[in-house]
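Ops channel
N.P.: pipeline sanity check, posting one input/output pair.
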């Protein structure tokens, strides 16, 4: 661009000399916080997805182990041992401080006089700092189970037994705390597995 044209554009735009440097600084001041929030938001959503995956795996593995009633070399495991094992395997989630685990064993109805399923075992991590109620329990409709699963546990007089003898349910709850509470707040995540 020729010198007279530059002078003309400076004159009509009202800019003198190095005025563009200030405009760049203002643009950066506006864009940078938005960019930082987007980066930390992406990190938080990644952490949230990772926490959900860990919880899903914990519930599945816990229900799988609890349903098999494995006998260990040192004796039969207990539900408390299984909860300790699940908490130890939950890293990097701090289940002792921000989580809760419930283990339920529900037995099928045994006769025409007692056709409804009953809770055979109920255990939770008593030292878990998170205060959250289980979705399973005697005061809940169908004991908190899906209607189809519940019906398989009801005694069938035609077959003189229930379709399923018992099921094991493991519920895992965790309070997710984001790095940037501006984007999202704390959430209680949950996962449940039935074996």
């Amino acid at each position: 661009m020729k010198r007279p044209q530059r002078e003309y554009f400076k004159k009509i735009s009202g800019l003198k000399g190095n005025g563009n440097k200030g405009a760049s600084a203002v643009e950066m001041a506006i864009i940078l916080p938005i960019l930082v929030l987007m980066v930390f938001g992406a990190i938080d959503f990644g952490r949230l997805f990772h926490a959900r995956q860990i919880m899903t795996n914990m519930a599945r593995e816990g229900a799988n182990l609890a349903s098999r009633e494995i006998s260990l070399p040192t004796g039969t495991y207990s539900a408390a041992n299984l909860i300790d094992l699940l908490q130890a395997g939950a890293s990097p989630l701090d289940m002792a401080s921000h989580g809760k685990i419930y283990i339920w064993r529900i037995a099928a109805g045994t006769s025409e006089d007692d056709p409804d399923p009953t809770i055979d075992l109920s255990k939770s991590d008593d030292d878990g700092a998170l205060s959250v109620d289980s979705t399973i329990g005697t005061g809940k409709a169908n004991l908190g189970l899906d209607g189809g699963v519940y019906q398989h546990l009801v005694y069938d007089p035609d077959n003189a037994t229930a379709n399923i003898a018992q099921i094991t349910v493991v519920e895992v709850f965790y309070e997710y705390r984001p790095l940037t509470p501006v984007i999202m707040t704390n959430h209680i995540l949950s996962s449940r597995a039935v074996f």
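N.P.: looks fine end to end. The CA atoms of residues 21 and 27 lie 10 Å apart.
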